[in-house]
Amino acid sequence: MTHNPPSYEPTGDRSHGAPDWQDQYEAERGTMDEQRNGPRMMVTGTILGSFAWGLLILGAVALGLFLAMPLLADAMESPRPAACAGFTSECVAAAEAR
């Protein structure tokens, strides 16, 4: 007679020659093939998850740039002359008077 672990009750199904506790174990945890494919699915999920996070971050950056474009365009079309590095009022007034 085989030893049954205490958490598994005998099922009486010995149609494929496996011990009673193995039937219960496979019903709860899956077959060995399913267990072997588990890590592969985790890696696939990690890759897809990283791709999804990358798309989310890229979309957020694109949205931020899209919303900031009017502000950037106004800043680039500033009437201040390029020669006035400090943007002092005297420099701007002198450049406009020219």
Short description:
This protein is mainly alpha-helical and 98 residues long. Helices cover 65% and strands 0% of the residues.
Write the layout of secondary structure elements.
Elements lengths: L19 H10 L2 H45 L12 H9 L1
Question: Describe it for me?
Answer:
Helix content is 65%, strand content 0%. The longest helix has 45 residues, at 32-76. The chain has 3 helices and no strands. The chain has helices spanning 20-29, 32-76, 89-97. It has 98 residues and is mostly helical. The radius of gyration is 35 Å and the shape is rod-shaped. The chain has a domain at 31-97. The protein starts with 19 loop residues before the first helix and ends with a helix.
